[in-house]
Amino acid sequence: MSIHSFHELLFAIRLLICNDKCEGRFVFSSQLLKPSMMALEQKLVSRTDSGPGGDNSKGQLQTLLTRAGYGAPFYITKQLKNNQFQATVEFNGVQIMGHPYNNKKNAEKDAAAEALQWLMDRRQTGNEDVNHMTMLLKKSKKDHN
């Protein structure tokens, strides 16, 4: 096994281990949350609203990936038959689909929020989420040589 493949395998294992609620399976856009947790997560990750300085889920996801040393995520948005838009965000070979929205911008923000929820340890709060996931996603120093 090459050293590059080894680091990719470790990356996948780290994603599975971080408090996996899906019993080891890759389940995107799963609905395992209890209603009481939804209010907490909405406070942690803004799904479509921008805060001061444009702080929204797209920016948070890009910051997280950049801090971990990865490229920016990209979005694929499709218009559905009911004139709504549904976006898929892709980063590091992972694709996560958001919920349908009436406009493209909110669909992309929702896809980013889904990705953040999938990546974050839900028990932490505030900026600790970004710092925690940065440590989990951090590339080895060997990758940079």
TrEMBL record:
Database matches in PROSITE patterns: DS_RBD
Species this chain originates from: Cajanus cajan (Pigeon pea)
Keywords in alphabetical order: RNA-binding
SMART domains (UniProt xref): DSRM (SM00358)
Name of the featured protein: DRBM domain-containing protein
DRBM domain segment(s): 56-121
Kinase keyword on record: no
GO molecular function: RNA binding
Pfam families: dsrm
